[in-house]
Design goal:
The chain is α+β, with helices and mostly antiparallel strands. It contains nine helices and six strands; from the N terminus they run H-H-H-H-H-H-H-E-H-E-E-H-E-E-E. Helices cover 58% and strands 10% of the residues. A six-stranded mixed beta sheet has the order 4-5-3-2-1-6, with helices on one face.
Length: 415
């Protein structure tokens, strides 16, 4: 009948009009979505009631329900209501005969079953995709934080490395220059003939400080390791220390051929720091630097016969703390013992390779056999700083003996 055709066309046009007026702007908005889905269900059921062929509108209506309804439970309810509406339309258009009922049941079962299966599967895929997207975003945020932390850690490590290098090289050279300048002033005031030697040492110290500065700027390990490795560097260090302080230094080296460059730098810095403490605080007459490489371990010992100190006292200096940190970075350790008759510093570090011993230990003794003379003129205040704070403590983590001999105050000990 014509009225059925007109009714079917009216239901179809309302469906289309609902899409353009409400559906296009209703996605995930609760009230417009509810109105639009209600119109979809009514139009689909009404169209089927006027014409059974309009049951094909289910192919559009079911996906619209899954797309527009946000919650899973509401989407399932809307699917069931749509199926009931289509079933009601079939009953009106086809009647209630046995054949019609069979057709209706089969059609509704297939349509609703396929819609539920596809809708649940696609919804699950969408949920998993959303979770993965959130995980990716969190991972990217975590990676950004890690990059920032790594940059900060790298900058901090570089600052600490530069601080250690400056302290172990330039600062010690400048300290030596200051002490040599004080000696030169004493020689000048007394009209001594050794003023020229003092000025030559000053020039040599300044040149060494300049070389260390250039080496640090060029990011090289050490200017002293260019020729002869750590053995020659320790020899030069001992000779220079003797010339500058008149403290007789003995250097003994056994087995360094297999040491890599990094290990050589650590050993040299330990020796420099040990002798720097001897220069500034110990008031010693003799000192020794002993390097021994056995198997995969290197051991450096710096000992003196000066005044001892209390290893349990607090320290405000950077030298020993920086030395301990330098050894810790390479897996080494620092041990220190001190008595009233002298101090011994032992630095131990692992090596990557095996040592190749020399034919015989090498020793370097001071060229002069004379007794060491005082730094300043008789009756004058010695130019060596009488500050025991920087050398009077061992940083946390450095091994020290629990029993320390009875110590004298530095002011009570004559050099």
């Amino acid at each position: 009948p014509q009225w059925r055709t007109l009714g079917a066309l009216a239901a179809l046009w309302i469906f289309v009009l609902a899409w353009f007026t409400i559906g296009a702007r209703a996605c995930y908005r609760p009230m417009p979505t509810a109105i639009f889905i209600a119109l979809v269900i009514v139009c689909t059921g009404a169209g089927t009631a006027f014409s059974p062929s309009l049951a094909t509108m289910q192919a559009i209506s079911y996906p619209l329900v899954w797309v527009f309804v946000a919650r899973m439970r509401n989407a399932i309810i809307a699917n069931v209501l749509l199926a009931l509406a289509v079933g009601g339309g079939f009953l009106i258009s086809l009647g209630t005969s046995e054949a019609a009922l069979t057709q209706i049941i089969v059609t509704l079962a297939l349509s609703l079953g396929f819609s539920m299966a596809m809708g649940l599967w696609i919804s699950r895929v969408f949920d998993l995709s959303t979770e993965r997207q959130e995980l990716i975003e969190r991972l990217q945020a975590a990676q950004g934080q890690l990059e920032s932390l790594h940059r900060d850690a790298g900058a901090t490590a570089e600052r600490e490395r530069l601080a250690r290098e400056i302290h172990d090289t330039i600062a010690q050279r400048l300290t030596g220059i200051v002490l040599l300048a004080q000696r030169a002033q004493g020689e000048f005031a007394s009209g001594g003939a050794a003023l020229g030697d003092q000025l030559a040492l000053l020039e040599s110290g300044a040149r060494d400080a300049l070389a260390e500065t250039r080496s640090l700027v060029a990011a090289t390990a050490s200017a002293n390791l260019v020729d002869g490795g750590v053995a020659a560097a320790l020899e030069r260090l001992g000779e220079r220390f003797t010339r500058e302080t008149e403290v007789k230094v003995t250097v003994t080296i056994t087995g360094t051929a297999a040491m890599d460059r990094d290990a050589e730098v650590v050993v040299l810095r330990c020796a420099q720091e040990g002798l720097a403490n001897v220069r500034k605080h110990a008031r010693a007459r003799t000192a020794s630097v002993t390097l021994k490489v056995t198997g995969s371990t290197a051991s450096l010992t710096v000992a003196d016969d000066g005044v001892g100190f209390d290893t349990s006292a607090a320290s405000s200096g950077f030298g020993l703390a920086g030395l301990h940190e330098r050894l810790t970075l390479v897996g080494g350790s620092l041990a220190m013992t001190s008595r009233a008759t002298g101090t011994s510093l032992v630095a131990t570090l692992p090596l990557a390779g095996q040592s190749v011993p020399f034919d015989s230990p090498r020793e370097r003794n001071d060229a002069t056999a004379a007794e060491p003379r005082a730094v300043a003129e008789p009756g004058a205040t010695p130019p060596v700083p009488n500050d025991s704070k920087n050398r009077s403590a061992v940083p946390a983590g450095i091994e020290a003996p629990t029993s320390v001999g009875k110590l004298k105050k530095r002011s009570e000990v004559t050099p």
